[in-house]
Amino acid sequence: MVIHLHGGIFVELVRKNIHMDRIKGQASTQITLEDDINILDSKPDASRLIYDRGNVALEEIKVTEDHVTVRGKLQFLVMYLAEGEKPVPACMEGSLPFDEQIYVEGVQSGDGANVKWNLEDITVGLINSRKLSIQALISLKVCSEVMYDEETAVDLYHEEPVEYRKKPLRIAQMTVKKRDIFRMKEELELPQNLPNISQIIWQSVEPENVEFRALEGRISIQGDLNAFFLYEGEGEEAAIKSYETTVPFNGTVDCTGCDEGMAADIDYTLGAKDVEVRPDFDGEQRVFAMELVMDLDISLYEEERLDILSGVYGVVKEVEAVSKPAQFKGLFARTSGKTKIADRMKLTSSDAPPIVQILHSEAQIQAEEGEIVENGIHIKGAVNIQTLYMSSDEKAPYSSVKGSIPFQYVLDVPDIGNGCTFKIQTGLEQLAVTMLDGGELDVKAVIVCRGIVFEHKQENIVTDIVVSDLDMNKLSSLPGIVIYIAKEGDSLWDVGKRYYVPISQIKETNDMTTEEIRPGDKLLIVKGISN
Fold first, then answer.
1. What is the 3-state secondary structure (H, E, C) of 223-285?
2. What's the pLDDT tens digit per position in 472-485?
């Protein structure tokens, strides 16, 4: 607070500290990885590729002057058919490291940086029975956000006549900014009609439809866990079996400072994932025990409406406000929407074995940067789908088909303007892939889009008050009594400031119940200070 004493005038600014975040710098880049990988000696020879999956693990993010260095690796998992009279599926995994320096103007050592990745493409080729070729295109988006405080005058305490006014302002005050982890443990027991587990050949365990909600002292997390396993069963035949299911999950993460109703902007990536086979109650190997770690990037905002001091004038003294421009961030909207996609996928390769039974389908959304349009955010991209299936071909009993379905959607945000920024999260629900015939699949899915939109405003805030003696020459030039005719854009504030008269006095003199005036209104102004 600042106190001014001058000629009997006592003025005290009441301030409030507003904690906000802003983007300091951001940049995007693409990196290409390419290498030949030998199949491990412990693995059988490969005759045909079946299925593949890629993931990016970020290991270190280092910020230096105008640069962000990102170190990580591409993790790949490849299913192939082993050579032999009776081809059976086998699995090979590995990784390709990368170390990329990205130019981000304005960042400095000690700044924080978030890095989002997108695996644009991964292509796996079979060079020979003991060697694979891996090619991948990865996009990296770097964003450096800094926290800052804006001390803003919200009230004025005074003992002598001083007129002041306020302006309403909506802000999104940052209350929590941290990283945390959420551990998830689930056990899935095989149905009775499936044999015991000898070994897992392929596994896919992924959380979907994840939603976060702020509660008092904690964050609620819920979603669905999609699990698929291709495994070798026990017994003389050692038959290959598959099991797929979806189970809901929920839990909480402790979060000091969190309160119900706060706006949650939370990103997650899947970190460590461990799956092992355990015995059931009877001691038979029939349970898939899964433990997953979700790495959380948590930002919580508290919506608040402030009345900030916007102007002041004196009645017995010259009282002037010293102002400066300041940037404020407000929560404009939280919104969500869904859009459907439908298309068909065909076997494109002439040597692709015909489809007999679908075993598993999975999809990833590749969304481009959204664009603000009238009353909404235009989102477009593609859904990349891969389906594992069984065939009647004895030489290729397992195979897969890939496809890409484009989409576009306008997420409804009424009155959104170009001064807004936003974050969009996309997810997939209700993915359904069905067989039409031996060479064609029908694909249907629902894309879920969730957005948080912020508005950014520049406002002049009062930083100090200057009090001085009245200019008596100026005061003498003003009439003691005047009939003032209001002009377009006039307010009682403007009239009172011009004649050094309190607004309450103008209202009383003119028998007014509100401060509203219209062009042409006649106001009787009686000067309150003698020359």
1. EEEEEEEEEEECCCCCCEEEEEEEEEEEEEEECCCCCCCCEEEEEEEEEEEEEEEEECCCCCE
2. 777 777 778 889 99
